[in-house]
Amino acid sequence: MEELVENVYEDGQKISPSLPEGVKNYLIDIDGTVGEDIPNEEPERMATAEAFPDAIRTINSWYDQGHRICFFTARTEDHREVTEQWLLEKGFRYHTLLMGKPRGGNYHWIDNHVVRATRYSDKFTDMVKKKVEIQVFDE
C-alpha cells in the first residue's frame, strides 16, 4: 500500500498528508452496491447474500492498481464479523472497513479534499469520463 505524502504550508507548518499522485481512496457501500441489498434488521441474510461479480472484478482491479479500497457501510459494529467473513468469502480485496455510515441516503459530503461521487445503477464498472459536447448559441 502506498504511503501518504507529507504536506506543509509555505511557512513549513505541517498539514494533513495526501495520497501520492494518481492514487485514489475508494469509499464503497456494500448493501445494494456490491451485493444484494440486506437491511440491518435482517442480519441473518448477510452471510448468504449474493455479491455482484462485476463489482468483485472492478474493485479488485482498482486494488491491484494501487488504489485504496475502503468499504463504508451502514451496517453496525454488531455486523462486523459477518461482513468481514462475507467480503473474504466473496474474494473482495480491500484495506479498511468502516461501519456505521448514516442510513437513508441523500448524502451531502463536505470536505477540504476533492470528493467525487458515483451513484451505482445496475452495473458496477470502471468509471469512465464521458466526453460532453457543449453547444454555444449566439443570441
CATH architecture: 3-Layer(aba) Sandwich
Helix fraction?
Answer: 10-25%
Broad CATH class: Alpha Beta
Note the beta-strand portion: 15-25%
Write down the oligomeric state.
single chain
Task: Count up the domains.
Answer: 1
The gyration radius over C-alpha positions equals 18 Å
Mean pLDDT equals 87
Query: Per the principal axes of the C-alpha atoms, what is the gross shape?
Result: globular
**Order of strands, widest sheet:** 3-4-5
CATH third-tier fold name: Rossmann fold
What are the main properties of this structure?
139 residues, alpha/beta, Rossmann fold, three-stranded parallel beta sheet, two-stranded antiparallel sheet, 5 strands, 15% strand, globular
